[in-house]
């Protein structure tokens, strides 16, 4: 026990806050005030640090995008109730001069009836006597199809398909003649397609990859062609309507329109424009009207 008491006595020599006897202590009002003020300051600093730690703050910053060569994904799902699928063309254009006409990669078109229900791909659309058309369709395909007076665009000087004839006429600046008189169109059933699907709608959904520059992608009726620096759509059939007098218009419903990657990464999710126009419904009674949306994609984190 004596050794233990000596150990504690030696340990007390290191006490930097030696205490005096109680009878020599003097307690003052100023000392109490300093103690209380110090305690309040300590409590305030601790609480403020806790609040700051648990509160998130946004601070603007400007970062140069070094990934300009990368593509920006666009996901969309849009329904056009008054335009059949075969008439819709999707085109992509931007300031770099890149033009994608009739873009179809990663794009799905679904035919819809008047009530908006999906039409089965194998469903029979029309019955009747097609003897004359069948006879024309069974004729042997000529080795070199006629361009019907227009300058052919193909190197072989032929127009093998109805599309070849249409493009040749557009390039010539002519309106397309009656498709009944064009053998290629009869063989491909172009007129029947127009008549049978005239009262249908179309749901278009898919995925686009575009350059990170100013540009546009658009859904337009008619076949699209590039004639020099001009972007042209053949609207003859669209403007005329179907044989039974049905008129088309560009009314639409936007179910989904997302710019940017679809990922669970929080930083990339902030940079994406998620469904900015989802739920937008536009009704157009004028078949020749154009509906346009301008969006500024500005990344900030």
TrEMBL record:
<dbReference type="Pfam" id="PF13850">
    <property type="entry name" value="ERGIC_N"/>
</dbReference>
<protein>
    <submittedName>
        <fullName>DUF1692-domain-containing protein</fullName>
    </submittedName>
</protein>
<dbReference type="Pfam" id="PF07970">
    <property type="entry name" value="COPIIcoated_ERV"/>
</dbReference>
<dbReference type="GO" id="GO:0006890">
    <property type="term" value="P:retrograde vesicle-mediated transport, Golgi to endoplasmic reticulum"/>
</dbReference>
<keyword id="KW-0472">Membrane</keyword>
<dbReference type="InterPro" id="IPR012936">
    <property type="entry name" value="Erv_C"/>
</dbReference>
<dbReference type="GO" id="GO:0030134">
    <property type="term" value="C:COPII-coated ER to Golgi transport vesicle"/>
</dbReference>
<feature type="domain" description="Endoplasmic reticulum vesicle transporter C-terminal">
    <location>
        <begin position="147"/>
        <end position="295"/>
    </location>
</feature>
<keyword id="KW-1133">Transmembrane helix</keyword>
<dbReference type="GO" id="GO:0000139">
    <property type="term" value="C:Golgi membrane"/>
</dbReference>
<dbReference type="InterPro" id="IPR039542">
    <property type="entry name" value="Erv_N"/>
</dbReference>
<dbReference type="InterPro" id="IPR045888">
    <property type="entry name" value="Erv"/>
</dbReference>
<comment type="similarity">
    <text>Belongs to the ERGIC family.</text>
</comment>
<dbReference type="GO" id="GO:0006888">
    <property type="term" value="P:endoplasmic reticulum to Golgi vesicle-mediated transport"/>
</dbReference>
<keyword id="KW-0812">Transmembrane</keyword>
<feature type="domain" description="Endoplasmic reticulum vesicle transporter N-terminal">
    <location>
        <begin position="11"/>
        <end position="100"/>
    </location>
</feature>
<dbReference type="GO" id="GO:0005789">
    <property type="term" value="C:endoplasmic reticulum membrane"/>
</dbReference>
<feature type="transmembrane region" description="Helical">
    <location>
        <begin position="29"/>
        <end position="47"/>
    </location>
</feature>
């Amino acid at each position: 026990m004596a050794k233990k008491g000596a150990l504690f006595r030696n340990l007390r020599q290191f006490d930097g806050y030696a205490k005096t006897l109680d009878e020599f202590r003097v307690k003052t009002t100023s000392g109490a005030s300093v103690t209380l003020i110090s305690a309040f300051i300590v409590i305030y600093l601790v609480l403020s640090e806790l609040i700051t730690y648990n509160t998130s703050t946004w601070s603007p910053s400007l970062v140069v995008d070094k990934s300009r060569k990368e593509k920006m994904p666009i996901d969309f799902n849009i329904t056009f109730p008054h335009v059949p699928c075969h008439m819709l063309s999707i085109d992509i254009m931007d300031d770099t001069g890149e033009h994608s006409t009739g873009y179809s990669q990663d794009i799905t078109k679904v035919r819809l009836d008047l009530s908006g229900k999906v039409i089965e791909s194998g469903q029979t659309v029309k019955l009747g006597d097609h003897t004359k058309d069948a006879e024309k369709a069974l004729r042997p395909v000529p080795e070199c199809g006629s361009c019907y007076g227009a300058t052919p665009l193909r190197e072989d000087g032929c127009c093998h398909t109805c599309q070849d004839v249409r493009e040749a006429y557009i390039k010539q600046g002519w309106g397309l003649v009656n498709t009944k008189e064009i053998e290629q169109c009869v063989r491909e059933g172009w007129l029947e397609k127009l008549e049978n699907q005239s009262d249908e709608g179309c749901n278009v959904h898919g995925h686009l990859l575009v350059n990170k520059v100013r540009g546009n992608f658009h859904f337009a009726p008619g076949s699209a062609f590039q004639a020099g620096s001009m972007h042209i759509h053949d609207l003859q059939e669209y403007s005329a309507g179907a044989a039974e007098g049905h008129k088309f218009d560009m009314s639409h419903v936007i179910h989904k329109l997302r710019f940017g990657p679809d990922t669970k990464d929080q930083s990339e999710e902030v940079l994406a424009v998620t469904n900015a126009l989802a739920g937008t419904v536009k009704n157009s009674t004028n078949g020749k009207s154009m509906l346009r949306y301008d969006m500024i994609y500005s990344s900030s984190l």
